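Extended Data, record MFS transporter
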Amino acid sequence: MPIIRDVRKFVSIPGARTLLIMLFLYGIGTGILAPMNAVYLNESIGLSKVQIVVIFAVSLFCNIAITITVGWISDSLKSKKQLPVFAALLCIIGLFIYMNASDFRSALIGMTITVAPSGLIMGQLFGMARNHFARRAGDIVEMAQIWLRASYSIGFFAGLLLGANIFLIATFKGVLWGNMAGYVCLVVLLLLYKESTGELGAKQVVKGEPFSLIMLVALLMLSCADAIRGLYLQLVVLKLFGKPEIMSYIWSAQAVFELFFMTMGGYLAARYGSKKIIFLGGCFALATYLTYTSSTSLPVFFVVQPLYSFFVSILYGVAMGYVQRMFLSRTGFGASLYVFISQTASLIGYFLPLFIQGITPNIFFIPSALVALSLLIIGMVLYRERRSNMRNSIVIEQL
């Protein structure tokens, strides 16, 4: 089977396992804090909904500016490794300030220093990874990227479960120390990792994608919807069910499906095209958001997780590769652009629910509308491509 052959080739490549472990441990560290972040600001520091949004927005704005600026110049650097190392060290410094914050100002400073350089980490890690596999196994570059992203996701969801239990034992302080441990592991593994540079050692058979601004806008909308869920679902769950750790368990339910869905999505995209699979994932997301707006049952929140897991797998796996293939000759910029889209979507997504008073399931009407509009755009692009292909086929037959 192709998948077995590809997996064997992947694990045999020098450095592949180090990259897998690196992203897995970084995912654990990130996942420990992710569902507790807004709750920490609200419960431990006593910040309001607006103050929480301002902190997230300011830190993300700085992240966006740094990510796209450094991403633009990173391809001129012989080595990209020093960028995520430096960024992780800054994140550690920011976390020290954040975990000792006592008011809005100190929380803002700490989170900004933590979040602002973090966009360099994901963008440059996947830029390095694409270079690494393009030089050693060009025929499995796309699946290698997806498996690395899946490794991060599995680590992230493992971190969610770990974070929920750490919270019960050591409260928010323990959660923050767990997040810091993830950055420390990342720095250590990066220092041990030997980056691939120089000429391609194997022919890269991956085909590029034509640049499409309208598709980037559609992906921005999908990412914006996911960002709204990422911040506000934890607050809605806390409001409905009263226990912060429940969100960690809900999120971690995705882990069972993540690797399978990312792998399946990668092979389906290779066969049917990335845009069609992204469209399918968006349909599942729309079904999930509409469920959130119409149900207050905890079991239902768990039941819809597989649907959302498929969407997230496509958005973080297939869509990431799709954007990168628009810039095959500039891997650092392509990877950073995807992170830039995700972070810009988060910045927009944090503000949109402010138009809805309070924290209620009605918030999810906003991501529902965003996904519906995105599906309309992708559907139009697919329709135009189909008509263009039909016209070309007719011309060829006439010749």
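Summary. The chain is about 80% helix and 0% strand.
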